[in-house]
Amino acid sequence: MLGVISPLLDFVLGDFVLAGRQGRNKERTVQDTAQGVIGSLTSELPVTATPQRQYPGSLPGRSVIDDYYEAIHIRPAFIDVGRLTSTVRRQIEVWSAYREQEQLLERIDVTRGTGIIVTGVQAPYTFKRLQSVIFTVDVTPDGPARIDALYRLIFPNATQTPYWQILGTRIIEWYIPPNWGDSFDETLAFRTEVLVAYDGSEQRIALRNQPRRSFSFTPLQQGEGDRSMKRLLTTWQNRAYAMAYWPKPSTCPAGAPAGAINVQLDAPVEDLVPGGIIVFRLGDDSRILEVSAVDGTQVTLTAPLVQPVLPGTRAFLGLNVHADPSLSSRRLTSRVGSLRAQFRELHSPGRATAPAAPFTWRGKEVFRTKPNWARAINATHHWDFDWVDSGRGTFDFKTPVDMPKDTRQLTFTARSREEVDALKAFFVRCRGRRGEFYMPTWDEDIAFPRQTLNVGDLRLPVSSAGDADRLSNERVYRNVAVRLTDGTWLYRQAYAGGDSESGPGILLDQGWPRTIYPEEVVGIHWLPRCRLASDDMTVRWLTDEVAEITLAMQVLPDVEVS
């Protein structure tokens, strides 16, 4: 070992010493210096330097070249066509990277390839040295709903079995529009478990933080449309459809030429995100395309347009839906039919978001959308009590809960998409029955004696002594909302009530912010704390702009004094 190291040290240390000691100790030779260092190293070794075992030579290591050549390469080896609504074409390159020999492609073994057309060279085929071949793959909408195809390339003389894989989901479009002579119903459904104690207190547990969404409408078709509707049901009812969200279209004012990848709209398509689908409709012509990017009113598609989008074409958000297992239809004539179509949207994570509540009081939202009085408000008055009755002799009753459970059902008419969105946002913030809010009764609950409300005064005068006396045992109706002519709402909590020198009145937690004259007061309502009585909300779209929504609210106890 020393014999091997010594020449190396002669070279290295010799250069180092000569460079560092020029002109000093010239009588000392480089060889002496090297020998002194070697001697020092040898004396400090913890083991002997004499080899104890002989090792045979090893094979040379692999290099990058060995990994790259002498193999069959496929690019790309994995294709995800996503949600397939029309034929998708992809190209795959197969390259024989053998430098010294040709390779025979004996065959291609296909697994689950129904509905996929592959064109290129026909096996058996001999790849020359370093030759590549392009295969064209057309994935059609005809075939199983789930795409999971595997193509194995059999090269008998190759060291491996290369393959490519195609994944995706086939979806066909439900292109039959609703009949706007009837409503298009959109239902949002949360799920809440409400545990009620014997004293009436509640514990509400959210079992679903994202609402499920379903749709119901009645298409009316004749002739070819009737035949298409029946064909869609008989061939695809057990699979997923792509369907336009009919109530909220946008428009392509200028259209887009064939080959374009960007489409300009007049308004953003609500909830459209990259990876989603968009539906273009003009008359009976309908197309579904996948979206790669959304920038305001500009939509970028994943592939260039095969056919142009004509000016005036409407654009809809595309939904992934599944039909109910049982649907009913009516045959009006041999050529005319109607269907009560019912669809459920497939899971779409993170879609149900809502802005913050516009009006709050005491840390909770105040829901003050005015109902449509053309639809009667239905009120149910319920008070829990138990009959103590053996069926013989005297009997009595017991009241475990000392408060009412009033429920009010109100119908709201939204005259624009913005008003519909506001009501849907309120429902999402409530998460069905879980959340709490304040809501005016909209009744003339308190008889106002038309007196001036002085600034800073803590008293609300009332005409009836009964309105003041009821607060002594009241657990639900402990808050009032005063509505003024200028649109201002004033919320106050009622502490107590009674008579005074100026008549009966209600004592409030806050004074009036300014002097309020009697003619400014539009109405005074009780403002109970509430929750929704149902986890479902149905939006009945009467047109693509106007909708009706019915909600039921149940009152809750509210006796805390802040």
Overall 3D shape? elongated
Strand content: 35-45%
- Give a count of the beta strands, DSSP E runs of length 2 or more: 38
For the biggest sheet, the summary is: 21 strands, mixed
List low-pLDDT spans: 1-41
- The helix fraction, in percent, is 10-25%
The pLDDT mean sits at: 85
Indicate the structural class. Answer: mainly beta
Whole-angstrom Rg: 40 Å
Give an overview of the whole structure:
- By secondary structure, the chain is mainly β.
- It folds into four domains: 2-44, no CATH class; 64-170, Immunoglobulins (Immunoglobulin-like), CATH 2.60.40; 184-345, no CATH class; 360-555, no CATH class.
- The chain is built from six helices and 38 strands.
- It has a 21-stranded mixed beta sheet that branches. Strands 31-34-33-32-35 form a five-stranded antiparallel beta sheet. Strands 1-3-8-6 form a four-stranded antiparallel beta sheet, with no helix packed on it.
- Strand 9 and strand 10 form a beta hairpin.
- Helix 1 (2-20) crosses helix 2.
- The radius of gyration is 40 Å and the shape is elongated.
